[in-house]
Design brief:
The protein contains six helices and seven strands, in the order αβαβαββαβαβαβ. It has about 140 residues and is of the alpha/beta class. About 25% of the residues are buried.
Length: about 140
């Protein structure tokens, strides 16, 4: 009986420690957000909205109030140091590939809260939830 009680306590302790590890990993993950979620975040939080496409792509079309930091630029790592690491960042690109890579690099650089627009601006440019600026 004593042995069964000890085994049960051990299983409970292992379960609790694993769930704590899982929660820590979840909080470290980059969160993919829809246009609707992104709009809510922009309204509720003081965030840095970053377009990681090239300046030419940015000039053609971009989300209002975003800043352009080209992920492909050789100065990218220096450019992101100008952002506040403690302030949430929302990233987007054309389709979501560059912003995902950028999010990983920003996480490695110490940024705490990163959101990534799912599907990029291509998926969401027709959304009525985001204010899009297009050049004519």
């Amino acid at each position: 009986m004593k042995r069964i009680f000890t085994i049960c306590c051990l299983l409970v302790a292992i379960s609790l420690s694993v769930s704590c590890i899982d929660n820590k990993l979840d909080s470290d993950e980059v969160k993919l957000v829809t246009a609707e979620e992104m709009q809510s975040i922009l309204e509720l939080e003081d965030v840095q909205l970053v377009d990681v496409r090239t300046p030419k792509e940015y000039k053609e079309i971009h989300i209002a109030n975003s800043q352009n930091i080209d992920f492909m630029s050789p100065t990218f790592d220096v450019d992101i140091t100008k952002l506040n690491k403690d302030k949430p960042v929302i990233l987007y690109c054309k389709s979501g590939r560059r912003s995902a890579k950028c999010a990983k690099r920003m996480k490695e650089a110490g940024f705490e809260k990163i959101y990534d627009l799912e599907g990029g601006i291509s998926k969401w440019k027709h959304s009525d939830k985001l204010e899009i600026n297009e050049s004519l």
